[in-house]
Amino acid sequence: MNTPPTRTRREFLGQVGQGMMVASIGYEVAAGLGLTSAMGADAPAALNFGKLEPLVGLMQDTPVAELLPKLAASLQKGTTLRELVSAGALANARTFGGENYVGYHTAMALMPSWHISQEMTGAEQALPIFKVLYRNTSTIQSAG
After folding, report:
1. Residues 79, 121, 123, CA angle at the centre, nearest 5°?
2. pLDDT value for 48
């Protein structure tokens, strides 16, 4: 899968050059020249997932022992299984960013759980998704 680069080679090399200049002349001089942004001094804003943010927060903040009843209540209020899977993936991405072995495998289990649920009917349809979301939340909370 080819994705277009987010910046050109010229822009990248320019940023590398700025970083090298900052490293060689020191922070104080670089700040005076307006080059401190090359050091990444500004922290990125926290990710916000819009409409799914409450579900993502629920999966990150709810104690795992209380998660399944809250997910079931959410379904009864009209949340779809697709939204639950999406929120689980976003909670995992925000927490781990692909940098946790168990978190990575939990994220990889979300789509198979979705496909399995589509083979089922009725209230049982949520079970495979609930199982993976439970593991996802447990992994998120064990990571701190």
Report:
1. 55
2. 86
pTM to 2 decimals? 0.68
Taking CA atoms, 97 is separated from 44, 93, 107, in Å, by 14, 5, 10
Q: Which two tokens stand for residue 117?
A: 């649920």
The SS3 call for residue 50 is helix
Q: Which two tokens stand for residue 92?
A: 């995992």
Please say if the pLDDT value at position 103 is more than 90: no
The model's pLDDT over 11-66, given as tens digits with 9 standing for 90+, comes to 777 777 666 655 655 655 556 656 555 455 555 667 788 999 999 999 999 999 99
Q: How many helices (H) and strands (E) does the chain have?
A: 7, 0
What is the Cα–Cα distance from 69 to 73, expressed in whole angstroms? 6
Residue with tokens 């987010």: 6
Token reading at 107: 């994220």
Query: What is the enclosing helix (H) or strand (E) of 121?
Result: none
Please state, in angstroms and rounded to a whole number, the distance separating the CA atoms of residues 46 and 50: 12
Contacts of residue 77, Cβ cutoff 8 Å, sequence gap at least 6: none
